[in-house]
Fold this sequence. Notes:
Blueprint: H1 2-87, H2 90-101, H3 118-137
Amino acid sequence: MNEIKNKNNIQIKSKAEKTINQSRKKQHINYSLLTVVLIICIAELSISAIQNINKSFNFKSKIKGLEHKRDEETDKNRQLKSDIENFNSQKSLESIVRNNLKMAGKDEILIIINKPDINKSDEINVNDKRNNKNRDRR
């Protein structure tokens, strides 16, 4: 009877060891899968962190460029405002009118010098050459 009990105990122990070994294998597989998932998550986080740092550098450089452009435009606006104030004065308006309407003031002599237009003289020369070629063909 003791022998039967010993055999039963041995069988029970072997079954228990098998189930324990199977559960350990499942646990190892689960831990392995979790490790792979964690490695993938860490890789994704690293990649996104690098991309965000790169984007921040790009945005900072764009901001500096836009600030420089803004400063240039504000200087240009100041210059244009001063030009408007200058043109609104009586003397500047009078000089603009005189130049555009070819008028002279008191005690002034108006001299107009006509400069030949380069484009028109070139067109005339081209047309003359064409006309001469057409005459030669006839």
